[in-house]
Specification:
The chain has helices at residues 3-20, 22-36, 49-69, 71-86, 93-111, 117-142. It is an all-alpha fold. α3 (49-69) runs antiparallel to α4 and α4 packs across α6. The longest helix has 26 residues, at 117-142. The N and C termini lie far apart (33 Å).
Length: 143
């Protein structure tokens, strides 16, 4: 059902890495995230981003694709992430939404003219599915 979505988004990730490289994408992801959501920086005071960013970037891209590739798996994994982040003081689904939104900004920025309406439509569908899982996870974990 979501084969086209998976294909286009996976190709977008690969193309962005060809253009800029994974390290740049990972570090720029957090630059954008903190620029657009400065209130979240307090959660990362002691983080070494050169090391941490590539791992987190990989996790977020995999979560996004798993949302449509393996929805049951993604639901469990995202719920675990929400639960784990409780220890860091993250108690609002909007913090997680911000990560999803920042990923879209990053990839569309890097792809520039290669970012198409079709890709944007697929991205909206998949990111909304991921946000739905996050909403369910936060209501389960935080309430």
């Amino acid at each position: 059902m979501f084969e086209k979505h998976i294909q286009l988004i996976d190709a977008a990730f690969k193309r962005a890495e060809e253009i800029k490289g994974r390290q740049y994408l990972a570090e720029h992801f957090f630059e954008l995230f903190f620029h657009n959501y400065p209130q979240t920086k307090k959660f990362f005071k002691t983080t070494d981003f050169h090391t941490y960013a590539p791992m987190k970037y990989r996790m977020i891209t995999e979560f996004l694709l798993d949302t449509v590739k393996h929805p049951d798996f993604a639901e469990g994994e995202l719920t675990d992430e929400v639960r784990r982040h409780q220890a860091f003081g993250l108690h609002h689904k909007e913090h997680f939404y911000a990560l999803v939104d920042t990923l879209e900004v990053l990839i569309s920025e890097v792809l520039a003219d290669e970012w198409t309406e079709e890709l944007a439509g697929c991205w909206i569908d998949v990111s909304q599915a991921m946000k739905n899982i996050i909403t369910e996870a936060t209501s389960y974990v935080y309430e």
